[in-house]
Amino acid sequence: MISAIIGLLDGQTGCTYFINAEHPSPVLFREGQVTFAANGQSCFKLGSPMQATSARVFTMRLLPGDVLICGSDGRDDLRLADSAGINTDETLFLRLVADANGDLNALEDTLRRTGEIMDDLSLIRIAYKGHRSEESEGSFDREIENFLKQTRRQRRKHVDDLCRELKFEIALKLLEGAALKYPWELEMLGRLAYVLRKTGHLQRAADLGESIRLREPDNADFLWELARTQGALGNRDRVRTLLEGIPAEHALYTRAREGEACASSILGLIAFGDASLSAAAQNGGITTVKIVDYSYSNVLGALWTGSCTIAHGD
Asked: DSSP assignment of 155-175, as one string?
C-alpha cells in the first residue's frame, strides 16, 4: 500500500483538483501566510483492502503568486535537535515553510537544522504565476461577459430570476460561461446541473452532478438534485443510493412534501390558474419551502401555454 496525492492544475484558471490517499496534506503559501490546502483524506492508501468505491476530490483556487508545497512523511518525522524527542506536531511544517519563505532549498536546510529526518523526504513546489493571454478576451459574447462581471450574489440572483421566468435556455448559456471561468464555484455548478435537467440535457446534468458529489459528498442540496436527475434517467438503484447518502440531519429531503400550482393562457389573452410559489406551498401543505422547481409547456407556440411551480419542503 502507498500513500499519494494525485492532482490536476488548470493553468488558465488556477483551479486545482486533487485527492489525498492518507498522505501529508499539501501546504499553501500565500502572501507570507501558510495554511494546509485541505484537511482530511479522500480515501485510504492505494491498494488498501478497505478502499472505497470513490474518492473525495478536493478543489481550491490558486492565485497568481501562490505556492503549493507537497512533501512525504519525512517532512514531519523528525528527531528534534533540542532533545525534545520525536516531533508530533504536524503544524511544525507550516512554521518551517514560513521561515523558508516558501523556497524549497531553504526549506530542506531548515528541516535538517530542526532535527534528524527519520523517514524518506521528498518535496515538490508548484508556483502559480497566473494566466496572461489575450485569448480569453472576446471569447464570450457580450451577454456572457456582462454576466461574468457581476458579483457572485448578483449572478445568483440573475440566474434565479431567469429560472423563475422559465428562461432556462438563457440561464444555461450564462451558466456554461460561468463554469468555464469559475470552475471552483460549486453553487454555480449546482445551478448549471439544475438548468441542464430543466432543458432536457439529462445525461450532462447527471455527469456534472456526479462530479459535484465527489467534491461535496455530504451536501444534501446537491445530492437531492442529482437524485432527481438520475430518477428522470430511470436509474432507480442510483436514486436509492443517493438518498441513503443524505446526512441524517437533512433527512427531510427524503420525505419532503410536494405542492404544485399551475397556470395557463390561450393566445396570451385569456389566463387561468395561479402558479405562484405561495399557491404551490399551500397546495402541498408546506410551511417551510426548501426547494423550488418550475415547468413549462405549450401547444402550437402561443396557442396554449402552461407553467407550473413545484415547491418541496415541510
From this structure: HHHHHHHHHHTT-HHHHHHHH
The domains of the chain are located at 4-127, 133-255, 256-314
The third-level CATH classification (topology) of the domain covering 133-255 is 1.25.40
Q: Residue-wise pLDDT tens for the chain (314 aa)?
A: 888 999 999 998 999 999 999 999 999 999 999 999 987 888 888 888 776 667 899 999 999 999 999 999 889 999 887 766 888 888 999 999 999 999 999 999 999 999 899 888 999 999 999 876 544 444 568 888 899 889 989 999 999 999 888 899 999 999 999 998 899 999 999 999 999 999 999 999 999 999 999 999 888 889 989 998 998 898 988 988 888 877 766 555 555 677 889 988 887 777 888 888 889 888 888 887 777 777 777 777 667 788 888 887 77
How many angstroms separate the CA atoms of 95 and 225, rounded? 42
Tell me which H or E stretch contains 189. helix 186-198
Residue type, 204: R
CATH of domain 4-127: 3.60.40.10
Cell numbers representing residue 141 in the block:
459574447
What is the grid cell recorded at 306?
A: 402552461
